[in-house]
Automatic annotation (TrEMBL):
Chief localisation class: membrane
Localization: Cell membrane; Membrane
Protein name as annotated: Uncharacterized protein
Keyword Transport: yes
SUPFAM superfamilies listed in its UniProt record: Neurotransmitter-gated ion-channel transmembrane pore, Nicotinic receptor ligand binding domain-like
Amino acid sequence: MNSFSTVILLVLLLFGLQYGKIIVVNATCLDHITVDNDEQHSIHKRSIDHDFGILPDVYYQNIAPMQNGQPVQVKVSVIILNLKIGSISTQDFEVDIFYHQQWNDHRLQPPTNIEAMTKMKTHDSNIVQYRLTDRWKNRLWIPNVYFRNAVSGSISNILTPTYYFTVTNYTEVFMAVRLSLKLTCHMNFYKFPFDTQICYINLTSTSDDANTMLLSWHIFRIGSHVDESEFTVTQVDHESDCIKRYKFGSYSCLYGSIIFKRNIGKYVIKRLVPSFIIVVITFIGFWIPTNISPARTALPITALLALITQQIQSDLNVSYVYALQIWNIVCIIFVFANLLEFAIALYMIHCDQEQKSKKHDPPPSLSIWNDGKENVNNQQQQRQRSTLKRRMSQHFQTTTRHAQIDVYARYIFPLLFFLFILAFAFYVSTE
């Protein structure tokens, strides 16, 4: 029993020693892992928080880098990537742009370890250029500029935030960011749908006045691939040397203008051509005899109802009259005048019938002398009428008064409508 118990004690002693070594080894490994993780975290933290010696010991982020009392010259670039015109009621437009700012900050220093930074290749070996992340926006002085006519906006971050800085030759700072903006655009629809709209992109300094910072255009353009179905961009222009003066100071500003011309193909096919055809069809009624009342009546009334329906289905909801409404109203007037001409022709038929009935039943004469005198006058009047009718028949090949009205209308109505088309085209084509 003593020997057996001794063997058990030896086995337990050996197992305890081996288990202790495992515990010690595992603890040592965990210590190494903890040390390695702490070291990696500290290196990563230094790579983010360390300024690589770019910023001096004393650097004021809210003070502009002026030299010799001269304001900082900031060059601004706007490149339009996408464009969309909003609805007529909201009167705005949306753009996606690359927004660039470039200035000189003489307070920046060469980095102490430029190899640890993101260097950029250049064509000139004498140019040193490196890139900084968007975290530097909270460290560097940045021109405080805002879009005056912006309703809303955001920085595009579909995959990663498109916001970065580039430093050239240690002091030239270039900032690039992609923005999505909704901007107001006050539109004028007096010549709709032949209108041309001008929309602006207005930039103004916020906190730095004109004595501290001046803005100037470097690039303002629209991408060649940008397309808008409703409008065509005809011109892009910009204006520099703009100063906004207020009671509390003067601030530098910039204007960029985009001129749009509306595509009229849809409106020509849907509105102008149908109304033109309706009016021309009513002119055919002048060639239909007046005694065929159903055809002469149905043609202008049907056309009048069609034009009124087209007028009610308006494309715009504005408080003033615009070009398309003028066109529709004049077309309605021509059709209504056609119906009025037919009413006058019917009245003339009634008058002619009354005159014929009076000729067949002449009033009794008072004396032979009067009868002879009246016969002479009637003969003279008949000669004059026959001469006039002969002349009229030479031109219009008709002798009845209601038929003469139709003959005149066949030429007067189309001529007036043609003159109206010329005047309307002149009106919508002038600026």
